[in-house]
Structures are given as C-alpha cells and as structure tokens.
Amino acid sequence: MLFDTHAHLNAIQYNEDLQEVINRAIAEKVTRIVVVGFDRETITRAMELTEEYDMIYAAVGWHPVDAIDMTDDDLKWIKELASHPKVVAIGEMGLDYYWDKSPKEIQKEVFRKQIQLAKEVKLPIIIHNRDATEDVVAILKDEGASEVGGIMHCFTGSIEVAKQCMDMNFYLSFGGPVTFKNAKKPKEVAKEIPLDRLLIETDCPYLTPHPYRGKRNEPSYVKYVAEQIAELRGMSFEEIAKKTSDNANKVFGITR
Predict the structure, then answer these.
(1) What is the pLDDT of residue 256?
(2) Which of 88, 65, 194, 222 is nearest to 150 (CA)?
C-alpha cells in the first residue's frame, strides 16, 4: 500500500482523464491520496473529490504566492471546512520568495493566521517553503506550531534544517526530486532521518520523478519515490511503502 500525501488532482491538468489517473493509482496499490486545496477554486474542487472517491482526503489552506488575495471570509471558510470528516490538514501554507506576486510581509501575516487557525481546530499543517527556510522555521517556532505539528512538503533542505523541523513535531515528505541524479541534499536527508518521520508524495502534476521527468506527474508515480528511498536506506520497497503509509495515517489522524 502507498499513500500519496500531497497531490493536486484538483488541477486543470486532470480535467480530461481523472478516472484513468485514479485507476492507474489503484493498480499501483496507492490506497490513499491527500488532495491539497490552496485557493478558492482548488479548495472547492478538493472537497468535491473527497465526496466522489473514498480514497481521497483533503487539505485546505492558502498558498503563499496568492496570500495577497486571501480575505477574512476565506479564512473563516477554511475554518468551517476544517470540521469536515475528510479534511485532515490545514495547508498548504508557508512562504515563497521565488515568486513575487505577494509581498513578504503579507505572506508572513497569512502564514501566521493559518497556523493560529490550525491550533484552534487541532489539525496538522502542511508547509510550502521556497527560498525562505530561515523565515519559515522562525515563524513556526514563534507561533508554537509544534502544538499541532505537520508536514514539511517536498523537503529539500539540509539535515540541520530537517532536525529543527522534526524537533517541532514535523514529518518530512519527499517527492520526485529525490529521484533526480543531482539531488544530493534530498537523498542525504531521506537516507538519514528517522524512519518514523518519513513521508512520500508526488505534488502532481508537478515534480515528476525519474523516469518520467518532464511529463505530467500523477499519484501512481509515487512508487518511484518509494523505490528510490528504499534503495538509499537499504530497505525493501514493501517496508518503505508500509512505514510511510503508517506515518501518513498517524500525522493525518486517519484511523479507519
């Protein structure tokens, strides 16, 4: 069994063939998928997918790139959705200093508000971090994010940063980049961190793993991430698949 902890099946790239994508995931023994909503449109679609597919759960939050667009009503809406039985996390949230659509101070404010909301509704958080590690870690510490913990999505940081995050009750999730030949840092961290802090994801339709790099990603490809980590750690694919699924169920509070 495999658990794709971060997917965007709510993206327009799947409008034509979503059922075929789901079927391929099932054929590769992907049993659970968390679809992440990060703005009005994608949150709405994520919630629809939880109703359509038993295997799909949702995370709801606001992406830092679009932080400038988030209103108080949006935050209130996210809080309301948090009580849905298949909403398992708040996010993705965080900071993105690569794109410049939303000013840094607005990103930080929206990030803090979502951490505070997650603590209020008692759900873990999913963190997006691009070129902003120092500020992300500082805000997580400042806001007491360890109270709910969560996931460092598509982790590409150093082992030192990994330790800081794990100390705050976070799991580290690895996606397609860990399969890239030049991805020295993700490989090192995926090999070294404690097994009980390890998760896998696709971030589909983005970050497609080798050997399909450059093409549209999909949940069935999470097996390539599991295979790579199994090889790095000298473990069997089955061991990695089971442990990362167990970890995902734990962080998301899925008991059935």
Answers:
(1) 77
(2) 88
CB contact at 8 A, 209 and 179: yes
List Cβ neighbours of 188 (8 Å cut-off, separation of 6 or more): 159
Write the pLDDT tens digit of every residue in 95-119: 999 998 999 999 999 999 999 999 9
Sheet strand arrangement including 87-96? 2-7, 30-37, 56-60, 87-96, 125-130, 150-152, 170-174, 198-200
Cβ neighbours of 231 (radius 10 Å): 14
Residue 100: the pLDDT is 87
According to DSSP, the residues that pair with 126 across neighbouring strands are 151
Residue 47 near residue 77, CB atoms below 8 Å: no
193 vs 183: CA distance, rounded Å: 16
Distances (CA, A) of 120 to 80, 146, 181: 12, 13, 42
Q: What is the mean pLDDT of residues 51-71?
A: 98
Give the span between the Cα atoms of 231 and 168, in whole angstroms.
28
